[in-house]
């Protein structure tokens, strides 16, 4: 099978991999590069569990052809903390008890991170809209919404 | 805070039953696993990397019920990347039932079907290839010669004479309880006599719960790999590590000491990760290829092949006095367990022990069937055995309240079980709190209830007469040992009204011995009128008909005095676990 | 065409643990030389908080801070047998096993401390902050770290404990159903307020008001997680989910989350919860298991609310817009009950 060299940045680091034709970004990140933080939930683009950021925009890694990220910046939960310091979203998810099984959490965090980059002071409705493609089976969503709103506040405080 | 959730700890209630001065208990301590979750480092089974990992996919039945004439794997075996194709004959001990680990039921399910398939999606072969894509392609290249058989999908149709036999281990299409009956019985008092009382209203209903998928965000799966010393490591999403280990050891006929199972961090389960289908196949794959093998369901398999909470159908009939006291309740329930037992047999007993719900009712009767149909086997799911019948009971309570013109919450409080009451399974209620929950929920919702109901308590008013075990009528309907009429039939007519027991017991002790004249059968009760439920049309669905009514069998003639308020045929003991097991 | 308000109520109880018993769970507890404890289980954390609740139970029983305890699940080489995480059995069964194991380890810890302090172990107590002292004389004390070190490097004792909890199997009477199903029950009552659109048949859940009796809220935030998430799942089971929309017909089965419907973050409603605690006599610190029962009252309460709102009884789950509309049609229009 044809293999294509692909170079991109993953969480700030240069990566160069060979990918098979049709390979999706999720497999390349997990199996190819060993970044296990994005999770497989459906492989159909219907659950949001594998959400990563490509050039800052949330994208479903399971539906993204790996070749299409050449030259781009991919960000996963592994790249969310600032060095040893957790991202405000991570702190807020911890303190708001916004995870139970934790499997949807990486995707939720990335969807929320994209929102906060775009809208530092989102309304509840905007938060709901931002995570509406991400399925959580445990929490009933309320703690996640609360955590994202809380994170926005923390982020603004940290910035000021 | 912006949360829409408000939580209040009602420390004022039951305060004298608690010591609230503990160090760690009662604190909102952060979860031990939360840092792992928010950093994506929590180790789920699929997060373990193995060099040279192989991928397994299954060939599945497209038919509800079909004989397997031939499986042709020749072309598939030659496909690129294919390492091995496993068939039923490769499984050392290809027959199991999950609860054999606690010695309950009969082995009735193969890991890979051989002679026939009994549901759409049943696995007949497992392909192992170097990539998932190659495994999928090879699955499509396996040719199975099917002989399609008639199938049955409705549990009541499955009980009708002449229905196709779903699972040859259970030729009557029901799980046989105690090697004796087609169903699990509950008999407490005499419901038919209560239904005949002139001062009661009769309320009947039919309730149906459709199958529900557990839908954990992480699909079920396992990775197995050869370890040292002839052992195999298995990373698994199981909800029950030793359940899966024991099942694997049995199916593969290998000692547990050769299995090293690792799990414990699971992406949701809700009951869907108990069935232990992945671990045995992954380990067998690792044994046969000498390489690490991953077997994981995709989402479509999780939804349609993975066992759901099975459908349940319940018929309820209540007798209620005009002031709202429920004096009799009768249940007939059908658990649709699909093609194999899995855990449904157990759920039926759990449901039976739960009846008649959290209420003290002096006459209760129930017949619950675990029925085999040609659909995906059912298994555990959050509240399995209880959720379905609670739906039935609580919808029914609403109808009862309307019939007698009582507020729905007041009706619950009036009939609620209290400390010291005798439950229908003949154990005293203790530690009850239904009344307080009703009162607090009403208060929170601003739903007014009258002061006398707001003043009631679970702690008082129970026991006394309510602790008595009533004189109980039993029957042998649905016997399977030696009696030809094994199919379920309506309950035999109640004997004519008999005098009340000579002594009303006021404790949990057995009711006083009493005798009861052999009574002539009264008029058989009419078939319960089934109100046509509001439902969506079922395209191409056959009408759900009740099994054919049969004449009542000869009424049971007691030979022995009561034991715990029951007439029993001679010496009698509980079914032991091993008493229902056939190896 | 209009939207109709409706309220529904339901109350339930729930049996904790595997029916009829016969479902053991075991725990092992041991201390490192510096007094940090490890709890080894083969039990599963599938999000319900097994690791966290057993950690608090172990710390409480040992008499040490929760930070000094770590729970390891699940490795069959190191964790002793457990039946598994289902049937709301985790907190009750595993919790009790952890208590037994922690008590045994604590007894050794106190023996070791007693030897160092030259007093009787019976005269010692823990302060839960890492110290062991003589009752009534807080000055005569030793840290758990020092006691553990002395036990292992000086006295030759293993600060460890084993625990098992088993309710022995009891059968069922074939004739009457007489049985000893479980040892304790949780309780719940719930009111749901909804609006039903009589043109589309759609339901909007406006508010949930509930009371859940859980024995003891061993960790109130973990209980809240279960109750909030469970009520959402109850809503979902009531009005959204099924793998067989036209059961018993097998057709139209969903294969992805576009077809298998669940309420999304925009469909959820405010939930006003009261937690009641009537400790179970045989529960770990009175705890029951809220994980399964929390979903159950929502299903019938929602169906009852639909009847209140538009006068249609839906006795078949899920309560879909299609069923509601057909019911309204059959009745010749919405018939709000307006009972409350």
UniProtKB/TrEMBL annotation, chain A:
Residues 4-80 form the 2Fe-2S ferredoxin-type domain. Pfam families: Fer2, Fer2_2. Keywords: 2Fe-2S, Iron, Iron-sulfur, Metal-binding, Oxidoreductase. The keyword Electron transport does not apply. PROSITE patterns: 2FE2S_FER_1 (PS00197), 2FE2S_FER_2 (PS51085). It comes from the Bacteria. Signal peptide: none annotated. The keyword Heme does not apply. PANTHER family: OXIDOREDUCTASE WITH IRON-SULFUR SUBUNIT (PTHR44379), XANTHINE DEHYDROGENASE IRON-SULFUR-BINDING SUBUNIT XDHC-RELATED (PTHR44379:SF8). This is (2Fe-2S)-binding protein.
UniProtKB/TrEMBL annotation, chain B:
Residues 501-517 have a biased composition (Low complexity). Transmembrane segments: none annotated. The keyword Lipid biosynthesis does not apply. Residues 39-150 form the Aldehyde oxidase/xanthine dehydrogenase a/b hammerhead domain. SMART domains: Ald_Xan_dh_C. Keywords: Molybdenum, Oxidoreductase. Residues 458-583 are annotated as: Disordered. Residues 487-500, 518-536 have a biased composition (Pro residues). This is Molybdopterin-dependent oxidoreductase. It comes from Paralimibaculum aggregatum.
TrEMBL record, chain C:
Residues 100-127 form a coiled coil. It comes from the Bacteria. Residues 4-268 form the Aldehyde oxidase/xanthine dehydrogenase second molybdopterin binding domain. Keywords: Coiled coil. This is Molybdopterin-dependent oxidoreductase. It comes from Paralimibaculum aggregatum. The lineage of its organism: Bacteria, Pseudomonadati, Pseudomonadota, Alphaproteobacteria, Rhodobacterales.
